[in-house]
Design brief:
Elements lengths: L1 E4 L6 E4 L7 E3 L2 H7 L3 E7 L3 E4 L4 E5 L4 E6 L5 E6 L4 E5 L13 E3 L28
Parallel strand pairs: 3-10
Antiparallel strand pairs: 1-2, 2-5, 3-4, 4-9, 6-7, 7-8, 8-9
Amino acid sequence: MHRGSCLCGAVRFDIAAPLHAPDACHCSQCRKQSGHYWVSTDVLRGDLVIHGADKLTWYQSSSQVRRGFCSTCGSALLWDRAGRDRIGVAMGALESPTNTHLGMHIFVGDKGDYYDIADGVPQYLRWPESAQTP
């Protein structure tokens, strides 16, 4: 069981499964939402239980994606693409230990100019299924 929450604790969640290797998304939307880049792990919807869902607000950031955040403290928590059986959960909201390591960087062509990616983790220009390396 993994647990997580927003900064103020109004939204909490439990994940009843091992976590998959997270990915770091460097696209401009994720950077603007998170203030840097977004790191999340995909969780089967049935393995995620949200407590305080009445404080969870959704922002439709594109025709296919909505982003969930706490309406009290503003913590970015979830990334939800329509039609998928999984939902992205913010790694920064999870309590340690997560027993994971970063698996990939995506949308690296959009990364900010103020940092370098030098951790040796695979990098992709798009989604992993399109698997283009820079």
